[in-house]
UniProtKB/TrEMBL annotation:
<dbReference type="GO" id="GO:0097035">
    <property type="term" value="P:regulation of membrane lipid distribution"/>
</dbReference>
<dbReference type="InterPro" id="IPR050846">
    <property type="entry name" value="TLCD"/>
</dbReference>
<dbReference type="InterPro" id="IPR006634">
    <property type="entry name" value="TLC-dom"/>
</dbReference>
<dbReference type="GO" id="GO:0005886">
    <property type="term" value="C:plasma membrane"/>
</dbReference>
<feature type="transmembrane region" description="Helical">
    <location>
        <begin position="198"/>
        <end position="217"/>
    </location>
</feature>
<feature type="domain" description="TLC">
    <location>
        <begin position="31"/>
        <end position="225"/>
    </location>
</feature>
<dbReference type="GO" id="GO:0007009">
    <property type="term" value="P:plasma membrane organization"/>
</dbReference>
<feature type="transmembrane region" description="Helical">
    <location>
        <begin position="168"/>
        <end position="186"/>
    </location>
</feature>
<keyword id="KW-1133">Transmembrane helix</keyword>
<dbReference type="Pfam" id="PF03798">
    <property type="entry name" value="TRAM_LAG1_CLN8"/>
</dbReference>
<dbReference type="GO" id="GO:0055091">
    <property type="term" value="P:phospholipid homeostasis"/>
</dbReference>
<dbReference type="GO" id="GO:0071709">
    <property type="term" value="P:membrane assembly"/>
</dbReference>
<keyword id="KW-0812">Transmembrane</keyword>
<keyword id="KW-0472">Membrane</keyword>
<feature type="transmembrane region" description="Helical">
    <location>
        <begin position="39"/>
        <end position="58"/>
    </location>
</feature>
<feature type="transmembrane region" description="Helical">
    <location>
        <begin position="127"/>
        <end position="148"/>
    </location>
</feature>
<protein>
    <submittedName>
        <fullName>TLCD1 protein</fullName>
    </submittedName>
</protein>
Length: 242
């Protein structure tokens, strides 16, 4: 019921996003209209889930001493809330025929949904999920980056400032929690049953995060290293590369 309610909430947010004015650069490119609306919903989730994860850990720091069996109502509700978002976004991608350009998101969402559902059902590793959802703090600035690129913002200073903030947040809220959880699972979690499933998910997510990080560095800090990007239509590029 909680997950289904979250799906409905993000469906309502998607409809509200229709009323948000779109920059001329978005309106002039039909392929960007859906993407703009999708990113606005993603931004809302990042703000809510990121701050929620921070609050949960700040309010109950003792959870960090028991990653496998620690429990809090706030953490449980957060995992249900984000599960609903991932389900909604998956359906949004599929029903709007964006699966080909956004297939990496579909893979990520399938991993997140299956892992989070297992946590909700068993009540174990909820603290690990809250730690992983700290990534949403980083996603706030990553989503702002993509919105600025799509809207062709006339102020390069704004993009430059966000570029460096985004890099710091990527290290602090994406790479650091991911590295810690990977170390913890490989060191302390039994490699069987749910533990084996979550460890495999985590290792695959490690590979994806490092791949995205290399793309981010090439795009924003070492553009000369990008291969085959000259003359490419942004609408034709993969969603995450944008």
């Amino acid at each position: 019921a909680l997950v289904g309610g979250s799906v409905a909430i993000f469906g309502a947010l998607r409809r509200l996003a229709l009323a948000v004015p779109q920059p001329a650069a978005v309106r002039s490119r039909p392929g960007r209209v859906w993407r703009w609306r999708n990113l606005l919903v993603s931004f809302a989730h990042s703000v809510l889930a990121g701050l929620w994860a921070l609050f949960s850990l700040w309010h109950s720091p003792e959870l960090l001493s028991d990653i496998q069996d620690g429990y809090s109502v706030s953490g449980h509700l957060l995992v249900c809330f984000s599960s609903g978002y991932f389900i909604h976004d998956t359906l949004d991608i599929i029903f709007n025929h964006q699966s080909r350009s956004s297939w990496e998101y579909l893979v990520h969402h399938a991993m997140a949904i299956s892992a989070f559902v297992s946590l909700i059902v068993t009540g174990r590793f909820l603290v690990a999920a809250v730690l992983l959802l700290l990534v949403e703090v980083s996603n706030i600035f990553l989503t702002v980056r993509m919105l600025l690129k799509m809207s062709n913002v006339p102020s390069p200073a704004l993009y430059e400032a966000n570029k460096y903030i985004n890099l710091v947040m990527y290290f602090a809220f994406r790479l650091a929690p991911q590295a810690y959880l990977t170390w913890y699972f490989l060191r302390s979690v039994e490699v069987q049953g749910q533990g084996a499933f979550l460890t495999a998910n985590l290792l695959l997510l490690d590979a994806m995060i490092l791949m995205y990080f290399s793309r981010l560095l090439r795009s924003d800090f070492f553009p000369s290293l990008r291969k085959g990007s000259a003359g490419r239509d942004v609408d034709g590029e993969k969603f995450l590369i944008d």
